[in-house]
């Protein structure tokens, strides 16, 4: 330990134990002869101790409940899929993975909470396409840096959106809807689960590719948006496919098109948007991330646990039932995937003209 005067005045102490942040032990200072204090290298002493402490922390993790922050309100697709994964992680570890919903600003409120949490493995959360790929281009200013303020752990799922319109609106096909919108510029409204979500961007891309003017009405999640759609307060929504299919089953909406390049096995009779508007390709995805600085040993352990969860028959069946495809990836591949998606969506966002100050 050195004082301000430089190494020639090294304080004659050494660190006997680890700080709680690296090992959970108390810090104890032991007096040393001055000559020995000068010879001993702080880094040489600390490195094996820190490595040992981190390894021990990873072995013990989790030894208490883990908070998982979902970026959107309860009841929506991300909430359902997150709870399925967290339930399996709870079973695998014997510790509760508790989902906490923090909606708002297209997922940015919850993402900011993850970024500002302690990097100890006990606060993790959803890494979404909205907050971690689209928002960087869509928003003029963000409270976090998607590349620097998080530790990506793994991907969890991928799923398309599905365009549904209220039956009382009239159109039963995408071409009919485009024709109506062209005859009534600015009068047809589309709801979203928040600015910057794929639900929002799907509508913006639809308007851009179709050459129409439609009104965006953002909500704090899919659930309230769907409620207003069923109450005829808005005309349509590109919701994640589980929510859209549920409303189609209720008989109050028409399903016009899925946003993936291929038809969904859950709705094989519903055409893709690309069949009418070539180039239309938007999927929603979710993964797990923690704040920057999450210990690598804990990251690797959580990644392995997530793979076990996604490989299980019960999670596969539950995801399929909700229109999602399990999407586990290694840590390096998860980092690369997020960056690639950010780059892919940047020109899409710019071309759509969507922007949030």
Explain what you see.
The protein has 357 residues and is α/β, with parallel strands linked by helices. The protein is 42% helix and 19% strand. The protein contains 12 helices and 12 strands. The strands form 2 sheets. Strands 3, 4, 5, 6, 7, 8, 9, 10, 11 and 12 form a 10-stranded mixed β-sheet that branches. Strands 1-2 form a two-stranded antiparallel ribbon. α7 links the parallel β7 and β8. α3 crosses α10, α5 crosses α12 and α7 packs across α12. The protein is globular and about 65 Å long. It starts with 12 loop residues before the first strand and ends in a 5-residue tail after the last helix. The N terminus is likely disordered.
Question: Which properties best describe this structure?
Answer:
357 residues; alpha/beta; 10-stranded mixed β-sheet; two-stranded antiparallel sheet
């Amino acid at each position: 330990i050195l004082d301000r005067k430089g190494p020639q005045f090294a304080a004659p102490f050494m660190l006997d134990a680890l700080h709680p942040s690296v090992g959970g032990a108390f810090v104890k200072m032991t007096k040393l002869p001055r000559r020995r204090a000068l010879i001993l290298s702080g880094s040489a002493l600390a490195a094996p101790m820190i490595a040992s402490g981190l390894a021990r922390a990873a072995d013990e993790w989790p030894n208490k409940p883990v908070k998982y922050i979902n970026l959107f309100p309860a009841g929506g697709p991300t909430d359902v899929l997150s709870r399925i994964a967290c339930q399996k992680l709870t079973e695998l570890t014997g510790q509760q993975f508790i989902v906490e919903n923090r909606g708002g600003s297209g997922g940015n409120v919850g993402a900011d909470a993850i970024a500002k949490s302690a990097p100890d493995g006990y606060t993790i959360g959803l890494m979404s396409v909205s907050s971690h790929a689209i928002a960087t281009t869509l928003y003029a200013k963000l409270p976090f840096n998607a590349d620097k303020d998080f530790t990506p752990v793994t991907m969890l799922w991928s799923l398309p959106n599905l365009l549904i319109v209220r039956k009382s609106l009239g159109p039963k096909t995408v071409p009919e809807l485009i024709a109506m919108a062209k005859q009534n510029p600015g009068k047809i409204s589309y709801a979203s689960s928040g600015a910057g979500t794929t639900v929002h961007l799907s509508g913006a891309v639809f308007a851009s590719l179709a050459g129409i003017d439609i009104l965006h009405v953002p909500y704090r999640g899919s659930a309230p948006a769907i409620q207003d759609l069923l109450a005829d307060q808005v005309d349509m929504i590109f919701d994640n496919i589980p929510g859209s299919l549920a409303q189609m089953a209720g008989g109050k909406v028409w399903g016009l098109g899925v946003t993936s390049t291929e038809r969904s096995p859950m709705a094989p009779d519903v055409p893709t948007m690309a069949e009418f508007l070539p180039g239309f390709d938007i999927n929603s995805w979710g993964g797990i991330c923690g704040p920057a600085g999450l210990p690598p040993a804990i990251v690797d352990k959580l990644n392995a646990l997530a793979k076990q969860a996604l490989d299980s028959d019960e999670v596969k069946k539950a995801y399929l039932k909700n229109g999602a495809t399990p999407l586990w990836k290694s840590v390096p591949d998860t980092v690369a995937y997020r960056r690639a998606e950010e780059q892919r969506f940047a020109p899409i966002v710019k071309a759509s003209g969507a922007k949030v100050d």
